[in-house]
Task: structure prediction
Amino acid sequence: GNSVTQMEGPVTLSEEAFLTINCTYTATGYPSLFWYVQYPGEGLQLLLKATKADDKGSNKGFEATYRKETTSFHLEKGSVQVSDSAVYFCALSLIQGAQKLVFGQGTRLTINP
Amino acid sequence: DTEVTQTPKHLVMGMTNKKSLKCEQHMGHRAMYWYKQKAKKPPELMFVYSYEKLSINESVPSRFSPECPNSSLLNLHLHALQPEDSALYLCASRGTRGNEQFFGPGTRLTVL
Result:
C-alpha cells in the first residue's frame, strides 16, 4: 500500500536554527510528493511539491528533494523564524484515479525567540 | 482567484439539528474533496467529487450527506450528528494540470 512516515514531534528550535523534518514514503507507483503547513486555527497550505525523482521543491526558504533511491522527501530550512511555528504534513499523491492525498502524521514545530 | 472559501468558520449544533457546510472555488477545478480533521491528526478523506459526480465515499456514515450543485460549489449536509463528529472540516479542490490540492480554511464544528 501507500504510506508516509514522518519524523515524530514535537520539534522545538531556537530562532535562526537549521531545520530538518524527515519524511519517507512507500508507494506502489510514481507519486508526487508534497509538504503542507497548517498554522494554528487554519487550513492546510501547500508549501512545496516535487513530481519526479531528483526534483527540488522550494518556497519561503524551505526546500525538499525527491529522492527515489531512499524514498525520502525531507524538509529543510537554513534559518527558521518564530513565524514558522506550525504543523507540517508530508504527503503523497499518485497520478491515477482520484489522486487521493496520503498524509504523514504531522510534525509540530515550535520556534522560540 | 486562487482561493477555496468555506462557510461558516465556526458552527455549534445539537444532535437533532440539521445544518450545512459550504465550500466554493473559482479556479475552474473539477475535483473537490471533503476531509475531517481531529486535533493533532492529519486530515481524513471523506468524499471526492469529480466533474460534479461523487466518485469516492470513504465509508462515511449517512448522517453526512455531500452535494455538488455545480462545478464551483460543494456542500456537506449534516443531520443527527454525534459529539464525536466534532472536528475541523476541510474542503479542497484540485485542477487538471497538477495533482496538488488546495485547501480552504475549514469549518470548526462542535456537536453538543
Chain B touches chain A at residues 4, 6, 31, 40-43, 45, 48, 50, 55-56, 90, 92, 94, 98-106, 108 (CB under 8 Å). The longest strand of chain B covers residues 18-25. The mean pLDDT of chain B is 94.
